[in-house]
EGF-like domain-containing protein
Amino acid sequence: TGEECRSIVFKEPIQDKVMVGHLIGLVEVPRLGSCNVLCYMEPDCVSINLGPSQGGNYICELNNASHESPGSPVLQSKQDYTHLSIENPCSSSPCFNNGTCQAGYTDKGFRCKCPSGFTGVYCKKSCSFDFEDGIGGWERTGTAFIHQPTFGDNPAARNRESAQQQGDWWIGGAENRPSESDPAGHLHQEGPDRPQGSLTSAYFRIVGRDISFLIGGGCTINDIRAELIVENKVRLFNVSFDSFETA
């Protein structure tokens, strides 16, 4: 995808200088250009040191910082070595909350890899799962969730008892009340329980023994369910669905 494609531009080489203290890769290469390619393939690489080796080969050192990076030391002298850095938008530290900036991605020239608990382009947004701030940071497929989140418990419109949910917003694939001004009781244009799709959260860590969800009833597990993904494997919740709201 476009977000996974990388484009980098190397600046003019600096002779007899090296970056130290930020080594992330060391390999022997047959040609100078091979080190450039290895840096391109390593998302965290923003500069390289090149030096002579045995048999006409070259020592290639990959660094995760350049001399323009905040807090990085000045280049040190080393005879017969060459230092090259890339044009690096990450030098302005655009990522917040300890996010890792990787240069050469997206139309901005960088991307932020957010730590657990944060999401968004710049890792500014904390991950919350109560939907009070929308579903930004969630990955959506299909049409089932195009009108989500839903405002209000709306028990009268749903002909159900109150779900006693936390907050004012929740996810309902059949509902179509994406704002407070929209009337309660409107349904998805494809009809109740018919739209298909998925909604996947950002990564999170379970710090206790249990994790619980408030899930609406009235559907079979083949129609609607919650899945927990651990190490890229789906762990299906053994939830019993019936005609009542279940916690």
User: Anything to note?
Assistant: The first helix runs from residue 32 to 41. The helical segments are 32-41, 155-158.
